[in-house]
Amino acid sequence: xxxxxxxxxxxxxxxxxxxxxxxxxxxxxxxxxxxxxxxxxxxxxxxxxxxxxxxxxxxxxxxxxxxxxxxxxxxxxxxxxxxxxxxxxxxxxxxxxxxxxxxxxxxxxxxxxxxxxxxxxxxxxxxxxxxxxxxxxxxxxxxxxxxxxxxxxxxxxxxxxxxxxxxxxxxxxxxxxxxxxxxxxxxxxxxxxxxxxxxxxxxxxxxxxxxxxxxxxxxxxxxxxxxxxxxxxxxxxxxxxxxxxxxxxxxxxxxxxxxxxxxxxxxxxxxxxxxxxxxxxxxxxxxxxxxxxxxxxxxxxxxxxxxxxxxxxxxxxxxxxxxxxxxxxxxxxxxxxxxxxxxxxxxxxxxxxxxxxxxxxxxxxxxxxxxxxxxxxxxxxxxxxxxxxxxxxxxxxxxxxxxxxxxxxxxxxxxxxxxxxxxxxxxxxxxxxxxxxxxxxxxxxxxxxxxxxxxxxxxxxxxxxxx
Length: 467
Prior knowledge:
By secondary structure, the protein is mostly helical. The chain is built from 19 helices and six strands.
């Protein structure tokens, strides 16, 4: 029996009947639907709309239904229910009889799906926050190995200045830590209860909404019934946060794709995260990183899909909103799995430290240090920049390095050059000259690593408090 069969006399068109059903994807919300239904049943009993016996029967039936669904996916296949809400009602009535129909007293599927999606999103936030923490710790662990390893940094994909490898990896820790904080902030807006809002105008019975919120672990209740049943801002905020995390994963993946190429050679891909070519026997392809890069498109598309679905919908609930569920489920799963793969990859990848050091020592990456040398001698930076530019141009023409210029040659560029110039261009000196908070000097990077670990621990403690 349809939940609305009394109003419509003719059967649905057979194709439309199948096309409009959502059970095929919202079945994954069954555990949340059962949890919310238990809270609603207790509220009905508190309002004397269920007897103690009916309450006990409903709670027992919901427990049994959830157990069966968890162990027998096939029970969904022959079901004629439109959605998970209809499915639960049908199965409950089959288990306990007429009392099962009383569960829908004072509620609407509009508030049910809003509640289920908030419960799903809350759990997804907690799970993905854990995966982000795992990712941050993996980056910190590998950064610790690269505290003394120099490498080039890049702007415009051209070699810029030498940095420590740890400094490079810690840049991604900052990104993922921001993602964690965004999710933590988003969770507060997710964690309010819509139950008691009815279809649009609120419940007609004196249900204890605060008690339902407490039972389900919500921090509070929604303030306006029309907003409560039609709000998907929490989902959009979550998906946008995932889009940023996916963007950061994509940038990390791109670095590893580039650095694993023969042209860079800074990392060696682990065999367990790479494939070969069916045509070229010598190839090892960075498939794991390429797929991480590709997942960003799927996750970002999910956010765009929900945004476009919600755009222009009048208050309050509209059936269009059924379409926001699949992007949510897909994006949450894709983000969670991508983070786990990335963290495991990080633990297996090999860094070619000597090759990194060679690259950091060539290509005039010490040119800025040479200009700064002149600044410390009293020259204006713009003048120093021009002098060192001419020095670089001459060395390029002659196939030489800056540190190979003789005292006489240096004097031809500026009388400020003295015998200490070559020492100022040593790789370790160039790196340690960037001795400001946030810089790549060895002591600063060690401080940054300790701070990153502490920040991740603090965020994790907050996440555990939620659980």
